[in-house]
Amino acid sequence: MQKSTETPVSKLVDDIEGKQAHKRTRVSTTPEPPIGTMGSGRATGSVSDMFKELLQRFDRSDKQAEERHQQLNENIYVMKNDMKEHREELNGKYEKLENENARLKEELSSVKDQMLRLQEQSNNNYLIVNGIPESIRETEEFVAAKIDAIIEDDLQLSITCPSASRLGKRVEGSIKNRPVRAYFTSQSDGFSVLKTKQKTTEGILIGSDYPPELRKVREILADKRKAVVKAKGFATILWPTFEIIVDGPLSTTGRK
After folding, report:
1. Is pLDDT at 129 greater than 90 in this prediction?
2. Is residue 169 helix, strand or coil?
3. Is-contact 162 145, C-beta < 8 A?
4. Coiled-coil stretches, from where to where (predicted)?
């Protein structure tokens, strides 16, 4: 029987190499840890994962911004519609106020006309006489007597003036004669005096007692009447309707 030629040393080496190979085989079967794994075991992720996460965050921010922009546009649209409705409402109210103002102006003008006519009718019993010498401490009876003397002596009319008074406050030392407001019982007496007023003594002026507004209207009508008379040959003013009659039928209105 042949004996083995292996030495104890070589056998020992084979045993050690076998054990190491077994260890390498056992280690290689263990799965390798992922890249980026720390010694503590907490994962930090790769660069690509971080980039993907940044992209996701950007997408979310962009989506939120888009939603906010859309909401802002909707709010602006609602505000524009509200402003349009308010503007239309204000325009309607303004137009209504303008119409109401025009109506009130027309009514006011009509009321003024009526007041002027009433003043004219109420003042038809009064005449204004200028140029009568003024005496110191004269009474209303004394002034009325002077009016009666003018009517009787100058105008040769059988009309009396029941009362008369000076207009305005007397100024001491003034040589200017204040006008006299003379009252007559009937309008016909006042008209009769006006018709013959040209016969008065020089310096005595007799006229109707009208307020400034009515005098202005009468002046306008008088100028229009003169123009109509010059063109047509005949025209008269119809009081108190402020109208001019030409050759009978009504043709123009003197009221502005």
Report:
1. yes
2. coil
3. no
4. 55-121
